[in-house]
Amino acid sequence: MIPICIATVHGKGLGVLLESIRQYAPEHPVYLHGPESVIEKFDATLKIFGQPSNFGDDYNYIIRRALQDYDQCLVANDDIVLTPDSIKVLLEDVGIINSMSSVRAGWVASRSDAARPCQNVRITGNPERLHFFKFPSEAHIKMVEEVSPILAHISKEAFGEGFPPLNWYSDDVHCRDLVERGYSHFVSASYVHHIGSHTIGFDAKKLHDQALPWLQTHRPEYAKAWFDV
To answer: In angstroms, what is the C-alpha Rg of the chain?
Structure first.
């Protein structure tokens, strides 16, 4: 089975996530990283204690550990809740994408109610009418430039060097790096509920200002393209 990798800081929503995994996807091993004082009370297949640093480094740590045992993994934010078929649909879509000889799959990510526009079920590209509480487009896989790995699949080969040491833009940088290596990213028909920014906070200016110097130094072409700096 494919492991689920989770990194946490405060663990505020972690119990709900783990219970949803237990209820809906118990066959998947859980690899969990976070402070001992936070995660010691939770059940997981493998716990790795460590003080939080930033999204990129924390998830790199637990993903790399899982990829020592497996050739692919699922990555989950600690503030999501699975539906009964979140993982089932995601992995079915991964299988469809992998059967396409014209693409190399990078990130394949679930949709959510709190996510960037291409993954957000509240936003549709064209006017649509709800059908049984969903927009018809939610049932389709689509190729996109970047995703947020709120719940997402990645192969060992694609993950490569991993995320940069950032909170904000770590997923954007990794997605763009993979595009440069010939990979494509996809939004699945899978859905998860997401609290949204529960761990890193809502101070957008602070998070942007913290990330920008790294981008200007290590990916100046991205900083220029994204922010004209």
So the answer is: 17
Domain count, the chain: 1
Domain region containing 168: 4-202
Distance between CA 228 and CA 221 in Å, rounded?
9
Phi-psi region of 166 (alpha: psi -120 to 50; beta: other; left: phi over 0): beta
Residue 6: closest CA among 40, 41, 36, 30: 30
Instruction: Please tell me the distance from the alpha carbon of residue 123 to that of residue 181, in angstroms, as a whole number.
Output: 29
Contact of 112 with 121, CB cutoff 8 Å: yes
**Inside any domain, residue 112:** yes
- CATH number of the domain to which 14 belongs: 3.90.550.10
pLDDT given for residue 200 in this prediction: 60
The length of the chain is 229
77 within some domain = yes
Each residue's pLDDT tens digit, 20-52: 999 999 999 999 999 999 999 999 999 999 999
